[in-house]
Amino acid sequence: MTAEAGPNMIKPVAAAALLLMMSLVAPADTVYLDNGDRLTGTVQSAAEGELVLLTTYAGELHVKLEEVKAVVTDAAVAVRREDGEVLTGRLALEGDEQTLGTDEAAQPLPFDQVEAIAADAQSLPKWPKKKRKWGGSVDAGVSWRSAETDTLDANLAVTLVRTRLKDTLTLELSGGYGEVDSQVNTRRLKGTAKYQYYLKDRLYLYGHAGAEQDPGRRLELRLETGAGVGYDFIKSERRSLALDAGLDYAHEWWNEYTITELEDAQHSASAALRSGAEAYVRSHLTKPLADWAFDDLFAGLQLLADAYTGDVDQITRDEDNVYLRLAGQFEQKLFKSAVLTEKLVVLPQIDDFGEYRLSSDLALETPLSKKLSFRVNLLTDYDSDTTDGDDEFTNTLIAGLRYTF
Length: 405
Hints:
Blueprint: H1 2-25, E1 29-33, E2 38-47, E3 50-55, E4 59-64, E5 68-72, E6 77-81, E7 86-94, E8 97-101, E9 106-108, E10 114-118, E11 133-145, E12 151-163, E13 167-180, E14 183-198, E15 203-214, E16 219-235, E17 239-255, H2 259-285, H3 294-309, E18 316-334, E19 338-349, E20 352-367, E21 372-383, E22 393-404
Antiparallel strand pairs: 1-2, 1-5, 2-3, 3-4, 6-7, 6-10, 7-8, 8-9, 11-12, 11-22, 12-13, 13-14, 14-15, 15-16, 16-17, 17-18, 18-19, 19-20, 20-21, 21-22
């Protein structure tokens, strides 16, 4: 009796053990959400902004991709990035960094760059060849101070970026305005456009054009265009570095006076003309009526009217320059979510490397919400070919808000 009962008892125990082992080794994927929640199951697909997760406890769950922070898969999957590139491997999470790869190697893949996920490349939904993705940001900052000296400074910048499978278009427009005791001392406007075409995953050709006006530095207008080659040396979720090299051509118009100098010159000219015109008119009014020279009197009155307008001729010179363009763009995530960026451009003149221009945009950005952040950036411009005693360096510190879309 005991011998017969033994095998009957072993079978259910063995079956239960087998089921337990199967459950332990069964594929299980994990989806991490921005709000801190974690979902387990099997990733069925991700496309058109939605991830489908098959679970044993709630059936199919549909999650918006914009709410997903990272995904970990037990098996290899096919992933298509927003730029159209298809990669295959297991999705994993190393620290706070999403990666994709095999047992031998893994590469960073920020999940906000993921457009679709499927079991294999053939199962991915068709990539629309004309698909374009626009994004960008708006920066705004204003400071006002009322005291013995009243000051006002305002800055605004708009950036638009369009990404496609093989190219990227970046449009930037920025401006600044400043007053000291109601006297304008800053009126700056700059616009640029840059087009990048990727020959390979990281190697690209670029072309750019721009226009700039900054009469506070005597620059009436600068028109600039150029082309060259670039390479993305680092592309990861926490760090990126791209370098450009090419040639630029610029045509520039420079003023004799800055904004404040022109206003001071107008006041001085107006005062001098007014004094002379008033004396001229008085000398005619004191004469006997028979001695009046009406033509001269009318000329004096016209001179007096001109004196109150204070017109001063602004002499402008123009020049052409060809530059070697060396540029770099670096981005580094600090702590959990702060971002440090640096955009540096060095432009030595082809015919004299000792004469060069430099521009730098160093910024630190800290998020306040998903789309709104606080941003501090230091703009530095250097021009070795200054005239009239102007400073070679111009530094502008801007603190404001950035809205990303």
